[in-house]
Amino acid sequence: MENKQQLGKYYEEQACQFLCQQGMRLVGKNSISRLGEVDLIMQDGMCLIFVEVRYRKNDVYGDAQSSITVVKQHKVINAAYSWMQKHDIDIETSEFRFDVIAITGRKLHWIKNAFSA
């Protein structure tokens, strides 16, 4: 991999393929707003899933999952709300959740409902 951006795209694609194999459908990628970014937006039945993808080469300084701070969680939540508003999705009545795909080395860990709004 040449740089961090390419590395990030590679692992986001790996995460997307994994979630599609689990029966989900891709709705969007890299949704950016002034409030934050959502790496993947998936759909499982009627539920929208906003996915944060994290990669760490190894766990010397902590695993990928531990790199998701409360500040990062708030940015993902705010970006998700912005995306739903832009797509006329009612936050009050729609089913959605926040998942994490944490990849440390070659181990992929899927955390459903990793955090909540």
TrEMBL record:
The record lists the membrane-crossing segments as none
Q: Which organism is it from?
A: Orbus hercynius
Q: Which GO terms describe its molecular function?
A: endonuclease activity; nucleic acid binding
The organism's superkingdom is given as: Bacteria
* Membrane is among the record's keywords: no
Q: Does the keyword Nuclease apply?
A: yes
Kindly give the InterPro entries that the UniProt entry links to this protein.
Restrct_endonuc-II-like (IPR011335), tRNA_endonuc-like_dom_sf (IPR011856), UPF0102_YraN-like (IPR003509)
User: What keywords sit in the KW lines?
Assistant: Endonuclease, Hydrolase, Nuclease
Q: Which family does it belong to?
A: Belongs to the UPF0102 family.
Entries under HAMAP family matching the protein:
UPF0102
**Top-level taxonomy:** Bacteria, Pseudomonadati, Pseudomonadota, Gammaproteobacteria, Orbales
Instruction: Tell me what this protein is called.
Output: UPF0102 protein DES39_0007
